[in-house]
Amino acid sequence: FFGPRQDISNIRISHVEVNGLFGLCASSHAVNASASGVTKTNVSISYSYFHDLSPIAISTQVGVSDWTLEYSKLDHLYSGLGAQGCHGSLWRIDDAHDITIRYNNISNAAGSNWIGAYNGANYNINVYGNYFYCDDIVNNCWASPGIISSEHISGDPDVSGYRVYNNSFYNIHGMDPDGRNVSIPYMVFFEGGTGTGNYVYNNIFYNS
What we know:
- With 208 residues, this protein is mainly beta.
- The chain is built from no helices and 17 strands.
- The chain has a 17-stranded parallel beta sheet that branches.
- Mean pLDDT is 80; it is low at 79-85.
């Protein structure tokens, strides 16, 4: 979906399945709204199923506001790839605000961060009511450094107003430099930049 270099607004994506190139380090996004110099506002994704995608399922960078992902399932996202060979985020959020991620089933991924911010000012990000997990039968399912994170890549992302609550995290592990699923990742991790008003509360962590 999307991709053209034009402003987009008031978009609804619902009851859609997107099946990508499982096992390939390919640019198979379900949603790509990363063009610079344009705005992407008031977009909702609901009751959809995105799976077998690599390396980023949803990419929203620059000029992004008022997006909602709800009642959807994201599964098998670049799992099965080489440990360090190809990884990204399930949702890359850069320079964005007023984002809501709620009531989703998010599972079996291998990524630097499952929901990650890497550049720009990111604020008013609400993550609640989601179930993040790795199936016991999936070997390459990990997060590093965290499930919901900001990470210094080419700039220091500023993160403010993150609210992460009423989520469940089950059976998710991290990676050591050799790619073995042995370390425990941060569930929420902010690196670089500045930020205020970030809250994490009332979440359940089990075997993670």
